[in-house]
Amino acid sequence: MARSVWKGPFVDGYLLNKADASRASGRNEVIKIWSRRSTILPQFVGLTFGVYNGHKFLPVQVSENMVGHKFGEFSPTRTFTGHSSDKKAKRG
Amino acid sequence: MARIAGVNIPTNKRVTIGLRYIYGIGPTKAEQICQQLEIPAERRVNELSDDEILKIRELIDSEYRVEGDLRREVAMNIKRLMDLGCYRGLRHRRGLPVRGQRTHTNARTRKGKAVAIAGKKKATR
């Protein structure tokens, strides 16, 4: 079920501070965050976040289209490269 | 025969049923259209007057997104997800279920027909 509108989008508060600080400093640094559950807000557009996937911080350049999605959607936590071709198949 | 919204030619079925042959019109919208134009539910498509057909056509053109337009919209939405690089987009790219269903078994609609694993022996007794 979708989240109630009256609550507004969910964002971990410290992200706002981090984003503001990064904007103020002017340098285009990767902002490391763990909060994959936070919604991407319009004021994050243009910034680069390093979203933790349990292993690494994957850089996510926030564009306008991403607003409304969650950070976690852009940082996959599983790796699956496909099944290797079976050795037995070649023999038989 | 009646042509409504492009290529669709519903047959001598009831109007509420015939309209569903149009992509983007299901039970609810077919019902709505009939109620709005005050067409009785028992009326069949070949019993409609030209005037009524015209009215249906105009209503669908103005109120509903249907056929090509709708298909394009759906395709655009999927394309947006794929270009964005978000999880749902990746699933679309891979041709796997998008909404968190299991893929250990099943998911055959998305994955297509089962492909035998080469060299895997069948269990024999």
UniProtKB/TrEMBL annotation, chain A:
<dbReference type="GO" id="GO:0019843">
    <property type="term" value="F:rRNA binding"/>
</dbReference>
<keyword id="KW-0687">Ribonucleoprotein</keyword>
<keyword id="KW-0689">Ribosomal protein</keyword>
<dbReference type="InterPro" id="IPR005732">
    <property type="entry name" value="Ribosomal_uS19_bac-type"/>
</dbReference>
<protein>
    <recommendedName>
        <fullName>Small ribosomal subunit protein uS19</fullName>
    </recommendedName>
</protein>
<comment type="similarity">
    <text>Belongs to the universal ribosomal protein uS19 family.</text>
</comment>
<dbReference type="GO" id="GO:0006412">
    <property type="term" value="P:translation"/>
</dbReference>
<dbReference type="Pfam" id="PF00203">
    <property type="entry name" value="Ribosomal_S19"/>
</dbReference>
<dbReference type="InterPro" id="IPR002222">
    <property type="entry name" value="Ribosomal_uS19"/>
</dbReference>
<dbReference type="InterPro" id="IPR020934">
    <property type="entry name" value="Ribosomal_uS19_CS"/>
</dbReference>
<comment type="function">
    <text>Protein S19 forms a complex with S13 that binds strongly to the 16S ribosomal RNA.</text>
</comment>
<dbReference type="GO" id="GO:0015935">
    <property type="term" value="C:small ribosomal subunit"/>
</dbReference>
<dbReference type="GO" id="GO:0005737">
    <property type="term" value="C:cytoplasm"/>
</dbReference>
<dbReference type="InterPro" id="IPR023575">
    <property type="entry name" value="Ribosomal_uS19_SF"/>
</dbReference>
<keyword id="KW-0699">rRNA-binding</keyword>
<keyword id="KW-0694">RNA-binding</keyword>
<dbReference type="GO" id="GO:0000028">
    <property type="term" value="P:ribosomal small subunit assembly"/>
</dbReference>
<dbReference type="GO" id="GO:0003735">
    <property type="term" value="F:structural constituent of ribosome"/>
</dbReference>
UniProtKB/TrEMBL annotation, chain B:
<dbReference type="InterPro" id="IPR019980">
    <property type="entry name" value="Ribosomal_uS13_bac-type"/>
</dbReference>
<dbReference type="GO" id="GO:0005829">
    <property type="term" value="C:cytosol"/>
</dbReference>
<comment type="similarity">
    <text>Belongs to the universal ribosomal protein uS13 family.</text>
</comment>
<dbReference type="GO" id="GO:0000049">
    <property type="term" value="F:tRNA binding"/>
</dbReference>
<comment type="subunit">
    <text>Part of the 30S ribosomal subunit. Forms a loose heterodimer with protein S19. Forms two bridges to the 50S subunit in the 70S ribosome.</text>
</comment>
<dbReference type="InterPro" id="IPR027437">
    <property type="entry name" value="Rbsml_uS13_C"/>
</dbReference>
<dbReference type="InterPro" id="IPR018269">
    <property type="entry name" value="Ribosomal_uS13_CS"/>
</dbReference>
<dbReference type="GO" id="GO:0003735">
    <property type="term" value="F:structural constituent of ribosome"/>
</dbReference>
<dbReference type="InterPro" id="IPR010979">
    <property type="entry name" value="Ribosomal_uS13-like_H2TH"/>
</dbReference>
<dbReference type="GO" id="GO:0019843">
    <property type="term" value="F:rRNA binding"/>
</dbReference>
<keyword id="KW-0689">Ribosomal protein</keyword>
<dbReference type="Pfam" id="PF00416">
    <property type="entry name" value="Ribosomal_S13"/>
</dbReference>
<dbReference type="InterPro" id="IPR001892">
    <property type="entry name" value="Ribosomal_uS13"/>
</dbReference>
<keyword id="KW-0687">Ribonucleoprotein</keyword>
<keyword id="KW-0694">RNA-binding</keyword>
<comment type="function">
    <text>Located at the top of the head of the 30S subunit, it contacts several helices of the 16S rRNA. In the 70S ribosome it contacts the 23S rRNA (bridge B1a) and protein L5 of the 50S subunit (bridge B1b), connecting the 2 subunits; these bridges are implicated in subunit movement. Contacts the tRNAs in the A and P-sites.</text>
</comment>
<keyword id="KW-0699">rRNA-binding</keyword>
<protein>
    <recommendedName>
        <fullName>Small ribosomal subunit protein uS13</fullName>
    </recommendedName>
</protein>
<keyword id="KW-0820">tRNA-binding</keyword>
<dbReference type="GO" id="GO:0006412">
    <property type="term" value="P:translation"/>
</dbReference>
<dbReference type="GO" id="GO:0015935">
    <property type="term" value="C:small ribosomal subunit"/>
</dbReference>
